[in-house]
Amino acid sequence: MRLRVVILFVVFSLAICFAGAKGKVKKQPNIILIMADDMGYECIGANGCTEYATPEIDQMAENGIRFTNCVSQPLCTPSRVKLMTGLRNYQNYEHFGYLNVNQMTFAHVVKDAGYSTCIAGKWQLNGIKYKDILKDWDDNTKVNKLGFDEYCLWQYTQHARLGGRFSNPLIEQNGEILDRSKDVYGPDVFSNYVIDFIEKNQDKPFFIYYPMVLVHDPFVPTPDSELWQDEKLRKKHDKDNFKDMVEYCDKIVGKINHKLQELGIADNTIVIFTGDNGTHKSIITSTSNGDIKGGKGLTTSAGTHVPLVVKYPDGIKKANTYSGLIEFSDFYPTLAELVDRKVKSDGISFSKLLQGKKNKDREVAVVHYDPRWGKHKPARFVRNIEYKLYESGQFFNIQNDVLEQEPLSIQQLSVRQLKIYNKLKKQLQKLPNPKI
User: DSSP readout, 340-368?
Assistant: First the structure.
């Protein structure tokens, strides 16, 4: 009898110890990916901007990793398709403003790892502009099929001409069209939805993809602008409002980070901030390196050089700047590795950097660009930090010739330049013909 009591006591004690240990097991990191619309690298204070105040994003850079060479696509849909699927556009880009539901997105990957998933902001991927050829253009479950549990989106199944994204927005949320009001500001609706999702899921791993509607044109007042007080001016387009839009974008980033802090989950949450392509061509931004003209839609650095800042206190113990190349296809395998999933993609994971470890550096970045939209011409290029080679044969030193106005003569290259040229050419020749 005494032996039986001792055995029961030991078993009970081990059970308590196991339960205690289990309770201390670290939860998988939450992940929030915030992507500004049409915000180039030069718009962030941490990157040298002297015209707009971005203290919240700057603080992320001061306490996390600031990436100086993130290469996007030149336009929104090409960037979003590449970002979400980890594939270069020649693999799966079909139409501007469209993503096929047969694609595996990063939301599928993290959802498979047990994450609750959410998307808020700009969608514009249902193919709403191609009603005659895309039968699922009005499918309001498409984002669910693409891996997201919940959504709050602009331009989902309702065309932009029926309602804008800023004042008095037309927003769809989990199957319902929200009531509209002239006093409602779209970015507030999206960010409040994100905050609600965080609060609701704070005790379990969550993934939020927040493709902002800021700072895309029309350049209109924000609720923090003096002009907002005049209802008649809330939809008036003026480049002077761009500054307020950038600063409101920064304010929303702070709003999300402050909520994480308030809930006590900031340390175990990875917050990523980036932009989908360069700034609108009508915007000139003052920086410590001089004035920079936006290059949205162009394959120059002004169109493809975007900000990338990551904050993750549990993983990034020492703030630093990473000057290696990041390509938009890299986000997909990075998120997969962070949640212990293996995927196939055109990208290279940079997740080790977020854990304070050494990462495999990307030697070249590859951009296949054929947006099939407007007057934008298709182009392919491969680049490293210093040089860029187009499929057309044009070769540029993009550090000395940022606007790519003087292609280098192949016959006059130095030994070093010729070596780089041949390496980039070899990479270009490896690229297959488009599948679609």
Answer: T-----S----GGGGGTS--PPBS-EEEE
